[in-house]
Amino acid sequence: AGGGRDDGYGAKVRACVRPGVSYPTPPRSGSANPTAQYRVQLSSDGKVNNVTLTRSSGNSGFDRAVETGIRRCNPFPKPSTGRYAPVIDVVYRMYD
């Protein structure tokens, strides 16, 4: 999420974050999809300045793995608008 009016930006961010998330995903049971939400502060060149958990998935190991993935996605992909938003909310679902 985030990044202004760039519809494909969320996909770019997911593609950057996902390889850095090292978590043994258990088989899915039921419709639950644990979700971690982070607020990421970026510098004007896309470097990660700060990462804050704003909504826990309820699984601290998964939350930490997602934070690691966010920090490894550095710098963040450049939006098509050419300007980084200073704050981006990243929503990461275990089974998406």
Structural overview:
A three-stranded antiparallel β-sheet has the order 2-1-3, covered by helices on one side. It is built from two helices and three strands; from the N terminus they run αββαβ. The model has no long low-confidence stretch (mean pLDDT 91). It is elongated, with a radius of gyration of 13 Å. With 96 residues, the chain is of the alpha+beta class. Helices cover 23% and strands 24% of the residues. It has helices at 9-17, 60-72; strands spanning 35-42, 48-55, 87-93. Strand 1 (35-42) and strand 2 form a beta hairpin.
Summarize the entry for a quick read.
This protein has 96 residues and is an alpha+beta fold. 23% of the residues lie in helices and 24% in strands.
Classify the helix fraction into a percent range.
10-25%
Unreliable residue stretches = none
Termini Cα gap: 14 Å
What Rg, in angstroms, do the CA atoms define?
A: 13 Å
In round numbers, the mean pLDDT is 91
Q: Biggest sheet, in brief?
A: 3 strands, antiparallel
The best one-word shape is elongated
Per DSSP E runs of 2 or more residues, the count of β-strands stands at: 3
Structural class by SSE content: alpha+beta
Beta-strand percentage? Answer: 15-25%
Strand line-up across the major sheet:
2-1-3
Order of helices and strands: HEEHE
Continuous helix count:
2
